[in-house]
Amino acid sequence: MDSITSTAQSWLTDFFDEKTKKEIKNLIENDTEELKERFYKDLEFGTGGMRGIMGVGTNRINKYTLGKNTQGLSNYLKKSYTDTDLKVVIAYDCRHNSDTLARTVAEVFSANGIRVHLFSELRTTPELSFAVRYLGCHAGIVLTASHNPPEYNGYKVYWADGGQIVPPQDGEIIAEIDALSFEDIKFNANESLIHLIDEEVDEAFFEASVKNGSFNAKGKDDFKIVFTSLHGTSITAIPEVLKRAGYSNVTIIEEQAKPDGGFPTVKSPNPEEPEALAMAIEKAEEIGADMVVGTDPDSDRLGIAVRNLEGKMELLNGNQTMVLMTKFLLDQYKEKGFKGNEFIATTIVSTPMMEQMAKTYGVEFKTALTGFKWIGKMIKDFPNSKFIGGGEESFGYMVGDFVRDKDAVTSTLLACEIASNAKANGSSFYKDLIDCYVQFGFYKEKLISLTKKGMSGAEEIKQMLIDFKENPVKSVQGSKLLWIEDYNTSIAKNVQTGEERTIHLPKSNVLIYETEDGTRIAARPSGTEPKVKFYISTNAKLDKAEEYKSVNSQLDTKLDGILSELNL
Asked: What are the protein's UniProt keywords (predicted)?
């Protein structure tokens, strides 16, 4: 506790503002537990940049922690690009303080002689990724905590290719940051280097989104969409993109259309949560809509609900949406003729069905660690290959490579194209998905997230993962364990034969069990939230669409049994 108090007292110098010092003094005198939570560590970069609760302290998002990040990044940019007129672009979302924090970040860059393009108002994360290359910038920043609760904010760093920073670059930037003291931050802005941007970049992004996400779908006049931005940034882009692509029957949930970092109408602004889309689904049932689309605050994730076989709206998971989007894109490429250099991609905790699809179409399949930055890195690492599309189970998808991060704007348009076309052809999004199960195998997944907050929660998550590794399952629902994939050691071991193979991905705190029948159970800590996550995938053969309900019920029963066996 002495070291924590000492760290907190270092924030009582004249460098820090009076409000910050007053709050810290109060914590030291009256709330040692809260003081501990705020100063026991420095915020770290995870799978989606840096995210944390807003407030004073080294373990919080505030002008000093983000200022230090920006100072370190400025120093790194100058070392990476010598004798260059450096440029960065900054966007921010709807969260409390995002606009003021974005301004602070811009001021620190400018104080270091770096030219800044700052969006004049909130904009989506995919537009920021697009803007980095469009404006010829050396880096980009977006102030967002994605779908985290209202008390969070965050800081995502993009490089010149429009993708998020990845190793070893992220480590090099972190080393620059760690070498600084807070007093090294240059806060005195050079206003002449800060330029506000808006309509020109908007126009270019909308045009690119329509070009990449539109496929001349039939039946647009007869296709009804209900859209909710969940109080986030997508209201600035998705309605306009849908309009330009020819969709006129779009009903916007007005109660959720106004950007608001408090997210007053939902418990969580996360489209993965069924409750978040409840208002939109209710409206869809009322007006007889064909599809519901909802996005998270920075508009990189999308949730989709469509009519099931009974005609009721059903929320699909990220794997289901990803599979059908990818198949549709593959069909488009196949029609034009594959060139032989195409690939699709997903992450190690997403559905194995993506690999089966790649084999069927004869395209390359690449898999990455969790986090879309790794898919963006593939595009940079393989410049002679053509990225068709890909996604991850956590409701993220990327269409082509004009954006280098998950993109709910273009993915929304793609989903509407698929569904509108299917309806016009006498089918539906849901029926087309079932056809995928018949063709590639019926894979069904379930995600269990356990929240463990604070210092004690971090220790609990660490211990849970140790226990999961040290006490491996012997079988799952009667199917014997076959492989253990340990991404910490980069070794996959066949427990029946002793065979070992090297995992050619960066080391990560992920453990995956695979049984003889292809059931997979993965465990990892979240890189963006105080959670431990368990991903379960199982499968069955579906001979024909008419057997969907019975086989689906069998897989549900099996998933419930797995959860019971694992005490989840």
From this structure: Isomerase, Magnesium, Metal-binding, Phosphoprotein
